[in-house]
Amino acid sequence: SLHPAHSGEVRVAGQPVATGRAGAMAAARVGVVPEDRHDSGVVLDMTITENLALVDYPSFARPWLVDRTALRDRAVELIADFDISCPGPEALLGSLSGGNQQRVVLARELSCDPVVLLAAQPTRGLDVGAIEYMTDRIRRAAEDGVGVLLISSELEEILDLAHRIVVISDGRIIGEMDRGD
């Protein structure tokens, strides 16, 4: 989960973001792929459709009414766009493989048109095919102009995706370099 900053501030496009406040990151157009998708990225007992709408649910709701057809149509589109292997949009997320669960998280976050994508350990626990898919989609997001902040302990992943590398230890920056260096 995202906690309030102990010091300093977070700014996106020059505007301060209230960290630790529900919905603040989404409102600032920051997509978040959390380190532990089960802890803070998805709800396993909810459907794929519901999980895909967790961040952008207000777009599908009016007072006292949820447009379930629009929710389902969006889910069908994202399932196809992100090649999510599933029996359908009403399947429980917990019935999917880890790689497909992670695709749901990435689909949800990228579908909200973020200016920044925070990806923490995005390939942890995934098989080789899922790792390749995730790194490719993250790379494409960066090529499309999304600022990607990758947090990873996997050197190969860092060297594959990062343009600039910052090493942090005990909350302090101890080194910074371009990938080529």
Describe this structure in words.
By secondary structure, this protein is an alpha/beta fold. It contains 7 helices and 9 strands; from the N terminus they run ββαβααββααβαβαββ. The strands form 4 sheets. A 3-stranded parallel sheet has the order 3-6-7. Strand 8 (164-169) and strand 9 (172-178) form a beta hairpin. The chain is globular and about 50 Å long. The relative contact order is 0.13.
Quick overview of this protein structure:
With 181 residues, the chain is of the alpha/beta class. The protein contains 7 helices and 9 strands, in the order ββαβααββααβαβαββ. The chain has helices at 24-27, 37-40, 48-52, 68-81, 98-110, 128-143, 155-161; strands at 10-12, 15-17, 30-33, 61-62, 65-66, 116-120, 147-151, 164-169, 172-178.
Helix residue percentage: 25-40%
Adjacency order of strands in the biggest sheet: 3-6-7
Q: Averaged pLDDT, please?
A: 88
Q: Structural class of the secondary structure composition?
A: alpha/beta
**Amino- and carboxy-terminal Cα gap:** 33 Å
Largest sheet: 3 strands, parallel
> Shape, please?
globular
Compressed to H and E, one letter per element, the order equals EEHEHHEEHHEHEHEE
Q: From the structure provided, what is the oligomeric state, counting identical versus distinct chains?
A: single chain
Query: Taking Cα atoms only, what radius of gyration do you get, to the nearest Å?
Result: 17 Å
Given as residue ranges, the uncertain stretches (5+ residues, pLDDT < 50) are: none
